[in-house]
């Protein structure tokens, strides 16, 4: 790219490098080079396109055929098991035995929501308040579980521990808690004590959840709560709370599994429930790590280092040092001599030394009573020894760590080697478990040494709470939480932990777990392994070579886990969660009648039995990323009054999301019924063919490419409307309509002028004011004002007007037309009053404002003003023409009696263009003036020596004054004239000065009139300025940045690009509302498809052609010829032939349609009326799904569904009340609000309420519109690219996720997706901390916490998409509930969104991660290259199967194509090619880049 890094369409983002002039030559050269390259590549283009589809977009898995039903893998989703466990937990007390990471918390959250919703019903009915308890074993887990639950449940809840500063051990506290809260998260010991104090009783509890339930044994608080308080209630007591236990293993010791499990069940009054096929989780998106061993030798014998011996002589007899001496000696074999010495420095801190001194004094104090004198000296010596030991450690110099066997143990070296080979500090996160705190501290210290920290290790520690025996190495709760947050956020990537990290840490992106010290129990093994949650995680166990105990422990644990699995399989049938496939043949045989569907054309038969297989085959055909788990169908079975009903949920990519079967006598048949209903739906919508095979793989690409079904490359010739219809009316008029043409700033012209009038046979509509430019930054608006009253004209008047008009063309523009009154399209006339006269604005008598005397005077002086024998002032302030050279016209200034015609001419008079006068010598005045005559004629001419010399000013050549230009100050236009060949025009100078503006004025007036004619044909009454803007295409690629536009027509005014941007958004909103209103049962996928049919460019293009809109589009700028009137006979002057047609791309015509919609929206926006925009949408989509003619018809088409108007439950009222307090809007339909918070995974079978996807579809379009409207009006000069970039920030998932949390909306969502709760909780923690940090920064800067930077959300990772979906669904729900009041959407935006975007400059860098922008920055700042560009073009080959055009993008660097990529659109093609080139540049040095790409661009500082 010559001079500036840029791309050639609206998706490019400009570099931060200062721009330099771009030459057209460079752009044309690169375009030619790119076209040549594309021609050469065409043979392989189609192949590349198809390969890019497969490699880069999605893999379409198509079933090879329907497998035998017995062999089909039907149950493959964990959600079905989680759902059934939840259903089981509603009915009876259970202990859910599921592996770590398989969704136990989800089951607990679902049960909590169910219990609390029933509690709200009870409270509404006046019953006593009861509370649900989520009990944990460790203090740290209180806050972690509360964080997850609080982020995902919208019920009032609380969390506390025994260390809480609140007065939790009072009756008043618990009374208030029961009145105000519904859920409590706490340690079991807190609840046990409060039960024993009778602060709360068991009948005030409705649910007990025991996390890590295997701890319930002996006198553990779990056991004591059940034994002392639960068991004492009568078995049939309705006040007995429901119990849910959760554990990965019901047994955590080497005992008989059956006995231990029976004891646990008996103690907790529960039944163990688990899945019969644990592999279901490995087949889903629940990741289990790959296990492996790291082997090491341990042949060293413990010994005492020199430092150990020195310290032992000093303090060896002090019992406070006994453990550390033992550890340090053993450490020589476990970690090495360096660590054995280093542990002293870590352990013997100043605080620890002071504690030992105090302890020593206390010990001697007790002994002093027996031997007061003998012990005094010994005490002093002991204390001095402690101080000496501390000073020794403080002064001891540790040399830099060397990774060799002399300093480190083989075990530690193997750990380091293993991490160096398998751990990428930039991508991975690792947890290393060790048994002792000192070991953990030493391992972290080793990896913090420069030798290893330089590799990118960021080490941290996680240990248990502080105690007197911990040696200062314990952690407070706050420190534990801080460490976990740092690990979660990437500030620590290698975490060394004791058993404190085995239970409870939930870090989804931890992918490496290492047991430095082996586990002791199976539960330790299961839980530490479960810390690795990411895909392709690894779990390593360090085992000593030849250590039989290690091998035996590994074997025992694995054997125990296998026995546990076998135990679970041998549980009674009522304890196993089998899904709904269990013994399905038996249940089908018991069913007397079930439906059958036969395809008439093929005879293919769908039965209850085969429907599950057919559906599984269809689901497997849905596209998914190549590296993801395959898609599955999820079945939710609900018990309804003894019968069972099932809802099947398909993945989001599916065209149909859910179907509900009929009620059945068994779960198995209910599932078959749901699958059968889904298959019928799929067949009806033709997603299954006549052989019951999936057609989705064929249909999706065509739908996906519908918007690209027309091309911006293909150009066709269309008729061009050159002149408005008003000009085509002929005949001799008897009356005329006056249109005043005046300047708002006549002084800008630089000389006096006066208004003109255009008189027409029919009244003209009011047209837009526009600007003309006179150079030197002088500008004026031109106002074209039609007067309502016509004037009656007699033949004399008409003749005068004809002569005046023709004289203007003849004298000013050197065009002599025949005076054919019948053919005159319009008439020109001078006005009496000046531009700023009030009379013009309020004229009632149109005739009075016209200067008729001037008109008749000009008619009566056809040859101009005679000057012979006239007074001297005849030459003052006149308009002079050269009949022989139309380029030479003058304004006279005054007579110069001091000059003769033989004096030298000034340089202001140029030589005549082509009259045969050669030489470069300075001519005299006479010769230079007559030079316009041919040489022969000059030879016959006699020089008149007595001619008077007149000083004059040459009138500059006509410019396109619609385009801004400047004039150099030093241009000489003064000259001298003699009048032997020149003529003085009868036209007054002030009229001529105004007449010179006529080309621009008439061109713009005609363009505006033609645009208004187009609007009249369409049936839209647009504002004139907007009508013209919408119809103006000023280059071949109007949508591109100015420096990349080709064939740019300057001075055409605003082009359609901004209006198209706005209209596209309203088109999307209008069609979305229409579809939502009219098709109540349509799912989101079908909505997208139906909307695409309406708004796709192909549809707009075809409808535009039907209206002949292409004729009216303005594509030609002002030229020297196209403003002249047509149809008149030209007697003298150059004849120009105007084009009858113009070339337009299909997409350009579609873009104009959207621009007209945008103009219609703006025309009535100030009245808050969308009717005209709605009419425009109806005109251009021309489809039965959008027939509205006014905005109110949208809501009139909406029929409130039964589920929305049904009586709400207590939980729905409670939700509506919470939202009213929080958001200020009161819902009339609480069930509609509930729908906005219902995740797609939460079946409608539970409450009969659909999920939020339809509302999200609606809200997305509404939010887009309100954002675009704000940016469009706030930044009136911004181009569409800038607007798009900044709109991306407002509507991004990243911001909307932050907004969701800020508003607390995520707490109201109901979901059944495992892992989502933790993802949301993690994000809530991260974004809350980001805001707190922003507030602290603002406070530190002295501007106050409330003035924090609102772009803090950009610092955090992207949130779960469901959060942004909630915001959009809520907007949709408010819109529907308010009966389509768009003002409510605007209020939401103004109140909740706008405060983040008052300063849009905060987001100027938002798009920096855009690949094209990133490439621009990398090339400019790292490689200092400015000669590059990204080119794109549609390929000539179309996708032969789907008739969809592909786009190729290429990067041209210094005249060569360096990289290319194909995609469905220019935007994605450029992103892909930029990403490819960035990868190529990743490891290049500046020198290598310059050599490889031949770059010689100057290197900037």
Q: What is the count of helical runs? A: 50
* Radius of gyration using CA atoms only: 43 Å
Major sheet: size, sense and barrel closure? Answer: 8 strands, parallel
The percent of residues in helical segments reads 40-55%
**Arrangement of strands in the largest sheet:** 4-5-3-6-7-2-8-15
Quantity of strands, as a count: 37
Structural class: alpha/beta
General form = elongated
Classify the beta-strand content into a percent band: 5-15%
Query: Any low-confidence stretches, pLDDT <50, length ≥5?
Result: 1-24, 45-76, 280-285, 579-584, 698-708, 1437-1444
The overall pLDDT average reads 82
Distance between the termini: 21 Å
Can you tell me about this structure?
With 1501 residues, the chain is α/β, with parallel strands linked by helices. The protein is built from 50 helices and 37 strands. The strands form nine sheets. The chain has an eight-stranded parallel beta sheet with strand order 4-5-3-6-7-2-8-15. Strands 9-14-13-10-12-11 form a six-stranded parallel beta sheet, with helices on both faces. The protein is elongated and about 140 Å long. It starts with 5 loop residues before the first strand and ends in a 9-residue tail after the last helix. The relative contact order is 0.08. Residues 1-24, 45-76, 280-285, 579-584, 698-708 and 1437-1444 have low confidence and may be disordered.
């Amino acid at each position: 790219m010559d001079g500036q890094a840029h791309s050639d369409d609206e998706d490019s983002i400009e570099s931060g490098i200062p721009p330099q002039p771009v030459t057209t030559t460079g752009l044309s050269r690169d375009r030619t080079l790119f076209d040549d390259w594309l021609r050469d590549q065409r043979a392989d283009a189609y192949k590349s396109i198809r390969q890019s589809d497969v490699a880069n977009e999605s893999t379409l898995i198509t079933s090879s055929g329907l497998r035998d039903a017995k062999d089909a893998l039907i149950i493959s989703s964990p959600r079905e098991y989680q759902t059934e466990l939840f259903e089981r937990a509603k009915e009876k007390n259970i202990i859910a035995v599921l592996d770590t990471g398989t969704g136990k918390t989800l089951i607990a959250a679902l049960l909590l929501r169910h219990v609390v919703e029933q509690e709200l019903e009870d409270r509404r009915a006046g019953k006593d308040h009861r509370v649900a308890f989520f009990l944990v074993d460790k203090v740290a887990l209180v806050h972690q579980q509360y964080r997850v639950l609080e982020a995902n449940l919208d019920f009032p809840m609380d969390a506390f521990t025994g260390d809480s500063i609140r007065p939790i051990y009072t009756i008043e506290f618990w009374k208030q808690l029961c009145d105000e809260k519904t859920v409590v998260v706490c340690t079991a010991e807190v609840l046990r004590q409060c039960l024993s104090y009778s602060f709360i009783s068991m009948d005030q509890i409705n649910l007990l959840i025991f996390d890590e339930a295997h701890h319930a044994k002996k006198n553990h608080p779990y056991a004591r709560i059940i034994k002392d308080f639960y068991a004492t209630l009568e078995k049939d007591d309705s006040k007995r709370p429901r119990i849910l236990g959760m554990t990965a293993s019901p047994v955590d010791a080497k005992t008989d599994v059956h006995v231990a499990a029976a004891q646990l069940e008996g103690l907790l009054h529960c039944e163990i429930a688990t899945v019969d096929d644990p592999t279901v989780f490995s087949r889903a998106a629940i990741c289990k790590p790959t296990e492996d061993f790291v082997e090491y030798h341990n042949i060293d014998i413990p010994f005492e280092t020199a430092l150990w011996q020195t310290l032992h002589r000093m303090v060896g007899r002090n019992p406070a040092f006994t453990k550390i001496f033992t550890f340090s000696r053993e450490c020589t074999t476990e970690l090495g001599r360096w660590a054995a010495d280093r542990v002293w420095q870590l352990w013997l801190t100043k605080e620890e030394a002071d504690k030992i001194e105090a302890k020593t004094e206390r010990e001697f104090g007790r002994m002093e009573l027996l031997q007061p004198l003998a012990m005094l000296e010994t005490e002093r010596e002991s204390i001095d020894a402690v101080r000496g030991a501390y000073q020794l450690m403080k002064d001891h110099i540790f040399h830099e760590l060397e990774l060799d066997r002399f300093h480190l143990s083989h075990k530690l070296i193997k750990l380091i080697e293993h991490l160096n080979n398998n751990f990428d500090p930039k991508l991975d996160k690792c947890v290393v478990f060790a048994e002792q705190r000192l070991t953990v501290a030493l391992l972290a210290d080793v990896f913090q040494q420069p030798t290893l920290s330089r590799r990118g290790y960021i080490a941290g520690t996680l240990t248990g709470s502080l105690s007197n025996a911990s040696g200062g190495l314990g952690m407070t709760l706050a420190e534990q939480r801080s460490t976990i947050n740092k690990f979660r956020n990437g500030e620590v990537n290698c975490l060394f932990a004791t058993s404190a990290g085995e239970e409870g840490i939930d870090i989804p992106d931890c992918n490496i777990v290492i047991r430095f010290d082996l586990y002791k129990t199976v539960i330790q093994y299961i839980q530490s392994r479960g810390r690795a949650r990411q895909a392709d995680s690894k779990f390593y166990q360090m085992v000593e070579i030849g250590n039989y105990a290690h091998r035996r422990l590994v074997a025992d644990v694995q054997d125990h886990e296998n026995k546990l699995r076998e135990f679970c399989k041998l549980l009674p049938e009522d304890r196993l969660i089998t899904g709904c496939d269990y013994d399905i043949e038996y249940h089908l045989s018991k069913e007397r009648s079930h439906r059958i569907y036969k395809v008439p054309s093929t005879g293919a038969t769908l039965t209850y039995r085969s429907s599950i297989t057919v559906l599984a085959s269809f689901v497997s055909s849905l596209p998914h990323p190549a590296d993801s788990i395959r898609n599955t169908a999820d079945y939710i079975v609900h018990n309804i009054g003894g019968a069972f009903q099932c809802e099947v949920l398909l993945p989001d990519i599916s065209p149909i999301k859910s179907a509900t079967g009929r009620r059945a006598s068994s779960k198995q048949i209910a599932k078959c019924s749901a699958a059968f209903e889904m298959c019928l739906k799929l067949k009806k919508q033709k997603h299954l063919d006549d052989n019951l095979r999936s057609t989705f793989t064929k249909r999706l690409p065509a739908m996906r490419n519908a918007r690209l079904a027309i091309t911006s490359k293909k150009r066709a010739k269309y008729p061009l409307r050159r002149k408005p219809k008003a000009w085509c009316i002929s005949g001799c008029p008897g009356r005329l309509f006056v249109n005043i043409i005046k300047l708002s700033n006549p002084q800008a012209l630089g000389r006096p002028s006066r208004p003109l009038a255009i008189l027409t046979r029919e009244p003209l509509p009011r047209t837009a004011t526009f600007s003309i430019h006179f150079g030197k930054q002088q500008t004026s608006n031109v106002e074209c004002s039609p007067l309502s009253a016509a004037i009656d004209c007699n033949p004399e008047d008409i003749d005068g007007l004809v002569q005046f008009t023709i004289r203007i063309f003849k004298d000013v523009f050197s065009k002599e037309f025949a005076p054919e009154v019948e053919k005159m399209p319009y008439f020109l006339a001078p006005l009496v009053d000046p531009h700023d006269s009030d009379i013009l604005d309020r004229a009632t008598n149109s005739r009075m404002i016209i200067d008729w005397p001037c008109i008749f005077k000009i008619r009566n002086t056809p040859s101009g003003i005679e000057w012979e024998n006239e007074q001297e002032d005849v030459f003052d302030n006149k308009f002079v023409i050269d009949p022989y050279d139309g380029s030479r016209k003058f304004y006279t200034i005054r007579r110069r009696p001091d000059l003769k015609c033989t004096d030298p001419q000034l340089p202001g008079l140029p030589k005549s263009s082509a009259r045969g006068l050669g030489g470069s010598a300075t001519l005299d005045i006479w010769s230079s003036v007559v030079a316009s005559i041919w040489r022969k004629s000059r030879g016959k001419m006699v020089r008149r020596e007595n001619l008077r010399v007149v000083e004059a000013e040459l009138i500059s050549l006509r410019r396109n004054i619609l385009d801004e230009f400047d004039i150099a100050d030093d241009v000489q236009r003064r000259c001298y004239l003699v009048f032997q060949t020149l003529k003085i025009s009868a036209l007054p100078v002030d009229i001529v000065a105004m007449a010179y503006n006529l080309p621009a004025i008439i061109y713009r007036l005609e363009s505006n009139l033609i645009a208004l004619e187009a609007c009249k044909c369409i049936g839209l009454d647009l504002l004139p300025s907007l009508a013209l803007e919408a119809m103006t295409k000023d280059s071949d690629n109007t949508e591109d940045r100015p420096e990349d536009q080709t064939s740019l027509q300057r001075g055409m005014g605003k082009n359609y690009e901004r209006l198209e941007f706005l209209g596209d958004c309203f088109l999307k909103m209008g069609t979305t509302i229409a579809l939502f209103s009219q098709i109540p049962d349509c799912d989101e996928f079908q909505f997208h498809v139906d909307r695409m049919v309406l708004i796709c460019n192909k549809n707009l293009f075809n409808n535009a052609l039907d209206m002949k809109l292409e004729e009216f589009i303005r594509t030609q700028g002002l030229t020297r010829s196209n403003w002249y009137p047509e149809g008149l006979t030209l007697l003298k002057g150059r004849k120009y032939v105007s084009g009858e047609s113009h070339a337009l791309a299909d997409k350009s015509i579609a873009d104009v349609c959207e621009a007209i919609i945008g103009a219609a929206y703006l025309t009535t926006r100030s009245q808050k009326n969308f009717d005209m925009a709605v009419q425009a949408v109806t005109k251009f989509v021309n489809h039965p799904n959008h027939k509205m003619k006014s905005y109110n018809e949208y809501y009139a088409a909406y029929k409130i569904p039964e589920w929305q108007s049904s009586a709400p439950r207590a939980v729905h009222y409670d939700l509506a009340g919470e939202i009213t307090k929080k958001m200020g809007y009161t819902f009339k339909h609480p069930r509609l609000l509930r729908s906005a918070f219902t995740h797609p995974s939460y079946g409608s079978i539970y409450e009969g309420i659909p999920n939020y996807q339809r509302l999200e579809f609606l809200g997305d379009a509404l939010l887009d519109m309100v954002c675009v409207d704000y940016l469009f009006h706030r930044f009136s000069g911004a181009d569409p690219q800038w607007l798009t970039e900044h709109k991306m920030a407002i509507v991004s998932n990243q911001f909307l996720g932050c907004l969701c949390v800020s508003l607390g909306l995520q707490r109201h969502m109901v979901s059944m997706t495992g892992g989502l709760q933790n993802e949301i909780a993690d994000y809530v923690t991260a974004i809350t901390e980001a805001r707190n940090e922003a507030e602290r920064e603002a406070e530190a800067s002295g501007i106050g916490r409330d003035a924090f930077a609102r772009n803090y959300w950009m610092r955090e990772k992207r949130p779960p998409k469901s959060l942004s979906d909630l915001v959009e669904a809520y907007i949709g729900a408010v819109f529907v509930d308010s009966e389509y009041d768009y003002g409510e959407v605007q209020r939401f935006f103004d109140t909740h969104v706008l405060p983040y975007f008052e300063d849009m400059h905060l987001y100027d860098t938002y798009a920096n991660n855009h690949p094209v922008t990133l490439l621009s920055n990398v090339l400019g700042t790292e490689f200092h290259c400015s000669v590059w560009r990204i080119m794109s073009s549609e390929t000539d080959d179309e996708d032969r199967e789907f008739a969809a055009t592909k786009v190729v993008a290429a990067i041209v660097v210094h005249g060569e194509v360096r990289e290319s990529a194909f995609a469905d659109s220019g935007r994605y093609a450029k992103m892909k090619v930029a990403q490819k080139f960035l990868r190529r540049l990743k490891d290049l040095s500046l020198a290598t880049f310059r050599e490889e790409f031949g770059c010689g661009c100057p290197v900037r500082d």
